[in-house]
Write a structure and sequence with these properties.
The structure is a homodimer. With about 260 residues, chain A is α/β, with parallel strands linked by helices. Chain A has two domains: about 10-170, MoaB/Mog-like domain (Molybdenum Cofactor Biosythetic Enzyme, Chain A, 3-Layer(aba) Sandwich); about 180-255, 2-Layer Sandwich (Alpha-Beta Plaits). Chain A is built from nine helices and twelve strands. In chain A, a hairpin with an 8-residue loop joins strand 6 (about 135) and strand 7 (about 145-150). In chain A, helix 2 runs parallel beside helix 7, helix 3 (about 55-70) crosses helix 4 and helix 8 runs antiparallel to helix 9. The model of chain A is unreliable at about 1-5 (pLDDT under 50). Chains A and B meet through helix 1, helix 2, strand 2, helix 6 and helix 8 of A and helix 1, helix 2, strand 2, helix 6 and helix 8 of B.
Chain lengths: ~260, ~260
């Protein structure tokens, strides 16, 4: 019998669309991919794909329709502000074939926020526009809320505002078992232990092993990251890697380098 | 008459696929998007879309086929090392319906590089595997080269190795006019100047204007980035923004804040 509060084996997935010419031009270094990825991991949801698309409606529409259909959740960052280049709401509405309407609560939030900041002008009212049927993702930091419509979550592009919106969603989305990980480092070329890694992964079918080489302090090394939903499986797999490294005269560094 | 060395009005485009579970898990913060985007800009090539995909062959194949067809160039980063989780070569070969072969020059490069580093074992020889017909992108830093096959460029995931591969490609790819940009900052809420930005963009059809708000030193501000292939058009558009800001009692900050 499964307790309703127990995460099941079902894997919950999400995708992220980063909307922004400023990322594609190289001007701005994206910070939302890492922050959304990390947050999703804690919710028991796997980030399966990210697309960075320009501020062009057809590009956003294509990405929204491709990704919302094959994931449980779709997040977007960017393009929900008050200026002419903020077109994410219109694009998502177009993708979902919904009209754009003024959300009364978003309007009230903005009216209150801007009461002491020059009042609600037409540009600011743009931030109350939502695809019909949407609900709001409240944001304690600023007036403009994020938007949820069906399985699509529209968030701000400014990373610390997006962080507030994620915080508001914490614990609100159904997820599965979080993907756990453990890292073992070693001062070795990964190409010298490739057989060990491949064979160990094959012998531990609940685990994936990623190998991430680096060059530091004038030496080559690598971190081996074991991922699984089972802490026991990770422990067993990690022990096998450590034994294998020691057997070849190498010293594992638990926790990574 | 057009000089063959003169960039034309044709817009050259590229896409980037970042291969890596470590990005999607949030463990590693991607640095290749910004570096590839910036490098492409200098080559006169526009980065049109980025996808981050997991270390899963079918996911890489789908992204390769979608993006190579609609862009002049497709770049990939990650998954070309010696370990079992490095599957980009196989995935690109599958997408292009090509067999994977050992590239004789890549093998020679690796033999030479590893002669004083323990010799060429089976794992290291994996890095000489290429889709049939590929050429190499030499990499002065390390033995393993990048790979060019048709319009697809496979590069390392480690950012400083990818940088070496980009360096080797500098000036080698046909491009168009570089996209230029100029930034004007202002200590104002972007929602207060949204009309000015929209109307100025409409009046300068060779330019796009992006508005990027921020919160710094306890104040709101924004940078307005004008992009165009024409320096003259950018100058005229920038002047219009500066005049508009001053007309409303705001002080433009040329170069941005």
């Amino acid at each position: 019998m499964t307790d309703a509060s127990t995460p099941t084996d079902r894997i919950w997935t999400a995708a992220l669309i980063v909307v922004g010419d400023e990322i594609l031009s190289g001007r701005t270094h994206d910070k939302n991919i890492t922050q959304v990825a990390t947050w999703l991991g804690v919710q028991g949801i796997r980030l399966r794909e990210v697309r960075v698309v320009p501020d062009v409606e057809s590009a956003i529409v294509e990405a929204v329709n491709a990704l919302r259909a094959r994931n449980d959740y779709l997040f977007t960052t960017g393009g929900i502000g008050p200026t002419h280049d903020d077109i994410t709401v219109d694009a998502v509405a177009a993708a979902l074939e919904l009209p754009v309407v003024i959300h009364p609560r978003a309007r009230a939030v903005l009216e209150s926020y801007y009461a002491t900041r020059g009042g609600l002008n037409e540009a600011r009212l743009r931030m109350a526009r939502v695809p019909e049927g949407a609900s709001l993702i409240e944001n304690r930091l600023l007036g403009a809320p994020g938007i949820r419509v069906q399985n699509v979550f529209l968030m701000a592009g400014v990373p610390h505002i997006a962080a507030q919106m994620l915080d508001a969603l914490t614990g609100q989305l159904e997820g599965g078992l979080p993907l756990l990980s453990a890292t073992i480092g070693c001062w070795t070329a990964e190409s010298e232990v490739a057989d060990l890694l491949r064979e160990t992964e094959q012998a531990h079918d609940q685990c994936q092993i990623g190998s991430y080489p680096f060059f530091r302090e004038g030496r080559v090394g690598a971190n081996f990251v074991i991922r699984s939903v089972s802490a026991d499986a990770i422990a067993a797999c990690g022990e096998a890697i450590e034994i294998g490294l020691r057997a070849s005269g190498r010293e594992p560094v638990p926790g990574g380098i």
